[in-house]
Structures are given as C-alpha cells and as structure tokens.
Amino acid sequence: xxxxxxxxxxxxxxxxxxxxxxxxxxxxxxxxxxxxxxxxxxxxxxxxxxxxxxxxxxxxxxxxxxxxxxxxxxxxxxxxxxxxxxxxxxxxxxxxxxxxxxxxxxxxxxxxxxxxxxxxxxxxxxxxxxxxxxxxxxxxxxxxxxxxxxxxxxxxxxxxxxxxxxxxxxxxxxxxxxxxxxxxxxxxxxxxxxxxxxxxxxxxxxxxxxxxxxxxxxxxxxxxxxxxxxxxxxxxxxxxxxxxxxxxxxxxxxxxxxxxxxxxxxxxxxxxxxxxxxxxxxxxxxxxxxxxxxxxxxxxxxxxxxxxxxxxxxx
Length: 315
Prior knowledge:
Blueprint: E1 5-8, E2 15-18, E3 58-62, E4 65-72, E5 87-89, E6 93-95, E7 100-106, H1 120-137, E8 145-152, E9 164-170, H2 175-186, H3 191-199, E10 205-208, E11 212-215, E12 226-230, H4 242-261, E13 266-271, E14 280-285, H5 292-297, E15 300-302, H6 306-314
Parallel strand pairs: 2-15
Antiparallel strand pairs: 1-2, 3-4, 4-7, 5-6, 7-9, 8-9, 8-13, 10-11, 11-12, 12-14, 13-14
Helix pairs in contact: 1-4
C-alpha cells in the first residue's frame, strides 16, 4: 500500500498532499508540440514591427541590430492614478488605484526561440536586464514592490508566443511577501539560510556550485517545482555579484533544458525581501491542473514527489 503524505510549506501554513499513487513517469507529462509560424509578420515583438509597440525604454544590440528590448506593456495591468493609499468603505470594501509601471522584456528577436535554447551567457544577460529595471523602477514614487516574472506556453499564461518576460512595479507589498517577512522576524534570523544548508545535501537537491543551491521544495505544489537560492544572504537583485548572476543562470538553464524535454509550459518569478527574506527564484512547471479540492480547501494534491522531481533534473 502506498501512503499519501501531507506536507507543510517550510514557513507558511500551506499544505500539499504528495499522492505518488497518482503519479506518472516524467515522459507522460510531455506536452504535445504545436506548430507555430517561425516568421510572423503580425507579431508585435518581431524585428521590423517595432512601430507596433509603445516607445522603447532600452535595448541591447550588436552589429546585427537589437537582441533584447524593454518596452512598456501595450495592455498594462497598472497605470497612473490618484488614490495611492488603500481606503475601506462600509467595513468590507477596501480599494485604491492600481498605480505603477508594467514593462515587457523581449528576450530575443527570433520568433520561436525560447529561453531553454539560450546559452549561459545570454541567459545571464537576461538576468542583468532584470536587475537594471529593478533598480530603476524601485526608485519610482508609489512603488512598493517590483514583480519580475515569465509566463511560457498557454497553460503558463503566455498570450503571445514570442519569448518575453514581464515586470510590474506597483503600489502594494504583496501579502505573500509580508507573511514570509513576518515568519523571518519571528525566527530572529533567516530561516531560508538554514533550509539551504539542509536541502543542498537532501534527496531533493538538484544543483549546487560555490554560489547557488537549487532544489525541489519539500512541500512542492506542482510536479517538478524548483527553488534556486544564492548561498549568500541577500535581499535584492542589486546585491548579487557577477559570479552569482552566472551561477543563477547556470542553475536556471539546467532546469529549463530539462523542461524542454517535456515541452513544458511554466512560470518563473523572483521573490525578494524587504527586511529579512532571502532572495530566490521559483520555477513552476504547469503540468497539472488544480480542481475542486484545491479551490475548496487551499490544499494542493501533487502527483509527483519532490524527491522524484529532483531525480528527473539530476538525470
């Protein structure tokens, strides 16, 4: 008899059920490939269509032209506003304007090329641009948090096929970050530093070098979910050294190239601290669907144990 195991998140009161009896081999998660035009004259992000996007914020270029561009999102989730602070009416109705800046990083001029096709140098440059935009946006008035994330594939929430990342700087410190910071304060130090020391030698370890540790989280919510931490305790991207950026990209590239084998849709995002919380990156493959139990209880059923997930990445 195979037992189901209930596991709690390292810090938060979030639970998952590891249901290995429902599990599949990694290859059974493989997503069907879909034909996409390699040249798309209607794609906003392809070279030659620059006039279709809002005015460019920055670019990186070589003799062949641009190879990365940062532009405002044509359909932003946040914008200018006047009501900057939360207000509550009739006890239950709390609101203010969603104020901020929504940007897009077009990571490649090639329609059809994805991050998992990059080499370490190019992926490091992507992370460097994240850092540049983070430094600039966090200085802006009313910005309380800068969210950097990538959606890949339709199940990952990507509305356009051409590879791109998004950056949203807005006027709210997310409750997810507040809750993690609260646990860090109560711990009188960084619990993640201790977690890193434990996980780098566990069955969930994926990758380690002198600068970073990569592992599948103990209470993984998604099949093949991964965390990447710098070993050094840092809060934000602008605190990382060049070698740490290279190590971070090396670990991320290892993960993405394994996900390419499954043609997996995914999300990744960077979580950073404002007082105590250790900077880290989270990669979430979108190979399973949440259903009634997850929405009804807030408890997630994951059919792939993090130990098996780590084994897939180490192969």
